[in-house]
Amino acid sequence: MEREGRQHLGPSDVPAEWNRLTELVIGAAMEVHSELGPGLLEKFYELAFCRELEMRGISYSRQHPIRLEYKGIALGDQYADLVVADLIVVELKAVERISDVHLAQLTSYMRSACLPLGLLFNFNVARLKDGMYRRVHSKDTPVPTTFLDAHPRMEKEHLD
């Protein structure tokens, strides 16, 4: 049964504006990787990535708290590295290789925050394209209707 006020979203249902924003975020990550290269601690990539988003006029929340609940009780908060434009969960890694646990963490953050898009970047690779992962809620995961109609908050010049 579908909950009121929710629609299901699949990978082919992603609005064009969301894809454009995703491309801008990927471009920011590529710039950071191009400038810094692999081999640094994750915190340095996070700081540089935040700076790059600021320079591009893309709104974000760093160390974004996500409240966890279980059957009506609050379990506590977990923290996503970033949430971009109240739409995309972004996780940053600097590890030898991405494991299933890293991808499960991204999915868990997306589900808990009720956000439809997720990006994971592993900066500890020779080419960032080999360390990028994109996730979209599956057709079985409900997404708030407000996200289907809302435009991400970003500078107008970045939409052209």
- The CATH topology comes to Trna Endonuclease, Chain: A, domain 1
Mean pLDDT: 84
Could you tell me the radius of gyration in angstroms? 16 Å
Query: What percent strand?
Result: 25-35%
Report helical residue fraction.
25-40%
Helix run count: 4
Structurally, how many domains make up the residues?
1
Concise overview:
The chain is an alpha+beta fold. The chain has helices at residues 16-36, 42-55, 100-113, 145-149, and strands at residues 6-8, 60-70, 73-84, 88-93, 117-122, 132-136, 142-144.
Give a verbal description of the structure.
By secondary structure, this protein is of the alpha+beta class. The chain has a single domain, classed as 3-Layer(aba) Sandwich (Trna Endonuclease, Chain: A, domain 1). Helices cover 34% and strands 29% of the residues. The protein has four helices and seven strands. The strands form two sheets. A five-stranded mixed β-sheet has the order 2-3-4-5-6, sandwiched between helices. Helix 1 packs across helix 2. The termini are far apart. The N terminus and C terminus are likely disordered.
Which key phrases capture this entry?
alpha+beta; disordered C terminus; disordered N terminus; 160 residues; 4 helices; two-stranded antiparallel sheet
Provide the fold topology.
Blueprint: E1 6-8, H1 16-36, H2 42-55, E2 60-70, E3 73-84, E4 88-93, H3 100-113, E5 117-122, E6 132-136, E7 142-144, H4 145-149
Parallel strand pairs: 4-5
Antiparallel strand pairs: 1-7, 2-3, 3-4, 5-6
